[in-house]
Amino acid sequence: MDREATNTYLKTHGILPEAKFGQNFLCDEGIAASIIESAEIRSGDRVLEIGPGIGALSRPLSKLDISLVCVEIDKRLASVLRDDPEITAEITDSDFLKLKDYGAGEFDVVISNLPYYVMTDIMKKLYGECTKARRMVFMVEEDALDRIMATPRTKQYGPLSVLTSLYGTASVVTRVPGSSFIPAPKTTSAVICLESDGNGLSRELVSFVDQCFMNRRKKLKAALKCYDSVTVAGAYADLGLDDNTRAEEVEPEAFLRLYNDIINAKSQRGTL
Questions:
Q1: Whose CA is closest to 16, among 27, 26, 25?
Q2: Does residue 77 form part of some domain?
Q3: How many other β-carbons are positioned within 10 Å of the β-carbon of residue 43?
């Protein structure tokens, strides 16, 4: 829907945007089309949309030969979506961060307009749970790109950038001005596309990376003290790390190798 149609839809259904949910409704059909195109959805795909709002993406997605699941935290919007004849989807009214049994491992594609205040938590949950997804397309605030795509030895480098890199290849599809939303935010947004490299992330890996950055000012070994010291020393030697290494200095691939070395050794000991 364009701006006029979106305003009419909001008035017809008596919908006022809720600031507590970070609601800014997309009213630019060109941007919506760009998001869906970049997702490269295939016939028969199972697609997860988080935060569908009033269906700017759900409506065109419903025209595709796919299985669509939408998770909307706002119960009044979820009700409107269920009654919309143009939307064919399974609508779940829930806080996605609290959702457990939603068939995470079955989704091929994930799409979401991510509010800044929950962006990091939602992305990490997706990385750890939607392990089959080959593509994820997100709308984020432009300022968030630095945290998502940060490189080692920079201030913004942390768990989110490590996990994003491990998930696969990230690219910026387009910038989106505030005028493309109702109400118009003061910030510029960006659409990013993440294409999986098939590294097979997991909840355990997400937790491990979080733990490594728990105290950025301390040496990485301090965060790993809960593991067998001999195993950690062996993993350090394997990666060429020294005792003074800090998490912000470690490349994403090294975190994956460190995790595999430590966890595999722990699992092997458990089977003896």
A1: 25
A2: yes
A3: 7
